[in-house]
Amino acid sequence: MQKPHHGKELRTGFTTGSCATAATKGALLSILSGKPQGEVRITLPAGFEATFTLVNVSISGNSASAEVIKDAGDDPDVTNGATIRSTVFLHTGNDIVVTGGEGIGTVTKPGLPVQVGKSAINPTPMRMIRSEISRTLAQNNVRDIGIRVVISIPNGEEIARKTLNSRLGILGGLSILGNLGIVKPYSSSAFMASIAQSINVARAMKRSEIVMTIGGRSEKYAMKLFPELNEECFIEMGNFIGFSIKQAKIRGFSRIHLVGMPAKFSKIANGDMDSHSGRSGVDHDFLANIGRETGIRDLSIFEGGNTVSKILESMTEDVRQMFFSRMAQLCSVACERHASGGISVDTIIISMSGTVLGRSANGQ
Known about the structure:
Elements: E1 13-14, H1 16-33, E2 39-43, E3 49-53, E4 55-60, E5 63-69, E6 83-91, E7 96-100, E8 106-107, H2 123-139, E9 146-152, H3 156-160, H4 165-168, E10 170-171, E11 182-183, H5 188-204, E12 210-213, H6 216-225, E13 234-236, H7 241-250, E14 255-260, H8 262-269, H9 284-293, H10 308-313, H11 317-338, E15 344-350, E16 356-359
Parallel strand pairs: 7-9, 12-13, 12-14, 14-15
Antiparallel strand pairs: 1-11, 2-3, 4-5, 5-6, 6-9, 8-10, 15-16
Helix pairs in contact: 1-2, 5-7, 8-11
């Protein structure tokens, strides 16, 4: 378990994939037993078993439905509290078919682990569902029977509007996700996986360049700076600058743009590839060195008590442009060095209001 700053342990939750698997097992057992099930136990890819409570279980002949309410633990997941429903149908045959229904998105762009035109049920959850079905049938000595499963999330399309699904080409709803079956609160690995996936989509769509930003506000301004680029070219990298740069290089991008604000980018310029405020601070001596290089005479503005915003306010416009253009250049150099070459990085530093403060020499 991870711990927040106040020391309290954060509670781990479960993925949509685990919930869909549990609901499927519950519906199948309800058909086989003729009795609505109240809970089920499934095996997670993380290597242990977990018990899930079922709700709204109903049986109708050779079909049944069951629901699981997703518990994301202490992670701020938009799908926390969502209803994950599975409807299972028995039919003649021996195949297992799993598809998405209401509230499950359809993949419309290449670069994702699911084929274009298919329901957005990722490979690991798909394997979980199929394995749990096979195991349940074997344990109940049921053979030569076909299974059709429809996974749905009521209000899934509405919830999906709060995600980046549409940008990734997942339309009409949410994805069924989860490589481990559990949700670790504020998981770095989950964020990094989403960055890699976004870069994959941009590459698969044959985009030649991408724009990386720290967060939503800088991305909004970046889109105004590069109106000619498609939406999948814009990628929020959060504080994972080094990881994002390397992922872009690995996937064949030879040129990227970074757009962000002074405080975070002062850390990148200083060679810090993780700009999280809890892991790195603004180096005022480093800023003073840039000031000295760009001809700023009053270096007292770089004293430790001053924020980057305060430093910005203290500069005249001509000095400000030289200072932040130099900072942008250092950002580009640091990122290209971190990637060991092979990629060109253009940097644009903007203010809180979206004004361009400075850009590296390669900036367009």
